[in-house]
Design goal:
Strand content: 5-15%
Shape: globular
Protein name: UDP-glucose 4-epimerase
Structural class: alpha/beta
Distance between the termini: 41 Å
CATH class of one domain: Alpha Beta
Largest sheet: 7 strands, parallel
Number of strands: 11
GO molecular function: UDP-glucose 4-epimerase activity
Mean pLDDT: 94
EC number: 5.1.3.2
Pfam families: Epimerase
Order of helices and strands: EHEEHEHEHEEHEEHEEHHHHH
Strand order of the largest sheet: 3-2-1-4-5-6-10
Keywords: Isomerase
Helix content: 40-55%
Radius of gyration: 20 Å
Length: 319
Amino acid sequence: MSLQILVTGANGFVGQAVSRALLRRGDRVTGAVRRPQTAAEGVREWLLDTEDFAGIDQRWPVALTCDAVIHLASRVHVMQETLTEPLAAYRATNVEGSLRVAAAARRAGVRRFVFVSSIKAMGEASSGRPIAETDQPAPSDAYGISKLEAERALFDYGRSTGLEVVVVRPPLVYGPGVRANFLQLMNAVAKGIPLPLGAVSALRSLVFVDNLADALVHCATDPRAAGETFHVTDGRDLTVPELARLLATQLHVPARLVPVPASLLHVAGRLTGRSAQIDRLIGELRVDSSHIRECLNWSAPHTVEHGLLETVAWYRSTH
């Protein structure tokens, strides 16, 4: 049966993949975007250029009735934060803004609200075993704190109103259109720059954007997902050297990896003021995604190799 789904942030990296996945199913997709003609082809755009979703109630189109909302729009993690009080800005968008969308959706008759959070709501690292949904959260930055607060506020709101809330926490997402650290790594590998990462042995979880999109479609449509929190990964963890070698293979270039001890990399991070970035490269962050497999019978439809092949094909066509 065809459903009507609202996707906030529909013009973003994940939003476009989610929209395409829904359209392939035959669903009707409305995308809330801030700029016209930026969503995927086939998406009906709703121009909603408001700060932190202020006034969304009054702006909700009379004709827009939908079965579920997939809420992707957020203030994302900023590597070089310039605000002196970033937590207030994150809370304004990620907590208060998300609650405004949820309240407007419920009043419009929406039954299911899928909130795309982040593994950063749990923390920056795992220690010896993958992070499960039932572990004690320990977010370490303003972004992660705001995502955790939003999860809790939305579940409280759902319990008090009957809105079915589902929370999804992805780790690093990659695929065509990826930015930030993953793109920097690809650039370095493609250019043959020697990387001091050959001795790094810590495993990290990733998720291909089309695997995440497929999981979000399940969370929006499967009755069993109501009230659940899910970690979503490709199901195969990699070390950074393994990832670099796979990218090099797909790019048809040699992987130039220099085995520098982790202790020296930590020192370099402190000296250059880039400790957080170094930690993300060499620290362990394994995520347990068995709950969504057991609860929804979901498994990643694409392998890591396929995801990297698609990512590299996009990279070669645009760089």
